[in-house]
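Hey, I'm writing a tutorial for new members on how sequence and structure tokens pair up, and I'd like a real worked example in the thread rather than a made-up one. If someone can provide the structure for the chain below, I'll link this post from the tutorial.
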Amino acid sequence: MLMQKKVAQEALELTRECLMQYWQLNPELVLSYCDEDVLWTGTLQKQFIVGREATAEDLRGTMRDLKPCHLMEQDFFVVQNSGNVCTVAGRYLVTTDERVEFFLQVQQRCTFVWEQRDGKLKICHMHISNPLGELKTVGDEMFPSTMGRMAHKYLMRRFSTLTDKTKLMAADLEDREHIFLLSEILYVEAGGRISIIAFLSGAKIPVRMTLTEFQEKADERFAAVHRSYIINAECISQIQKYEVVLIDGTRIPIPVKKYRETREMLLERLQ
């Protein structure tokens, strides 16, 4: 017997929201879902904690050492669903908000075990870890002071984007020629014999070019995730089931039958 798919999906979304709130320095949401006997396993040596009260003390105590962060390149999925229990796993990049006086970024992995009791979801176990060698901390320091490998890759990618002058030439519907910077393109949508180019600025320009023609002129950062869409993989914020969420909040569908293949392709490009 499986937990209803709707409830399992709710557990997935709650996992995401709990983590997002935590990294915005609000641990109360995740604590509100913790079972009285929850097991919390964190990244620090001391963080093998049983019980909601002790977990609350630990999570609230870490707030003084953290800086506001947001999650990028999110990838969450239900890995186990049986009866009234489901397990949600995920990976994401924790990135300092722009208002923070320094930049840090680190990859984390998580596992949340949810149990449905009397129609309500509760967290029985939550585990968060960092890949070996990703964080360089001192003692029980909660927030790293040294840039990790993922942060370095992110900065190099951002620097490349800012300095990239690779251009694309295309004619609009009035046959006026335009020259676009590829780094400023968010995604391209098919429209028959034309395509609509969406930019990071929010502008959209129809051009006389098919998706196939665009793909031939663009570079490897652009990925076809649907027969009607090509996206800039460097602009991915989240990979959800059957869709990609871009940094401006745009949701691009992924065909159900090609979801696994497309997801693996995108994750490989993001490494």
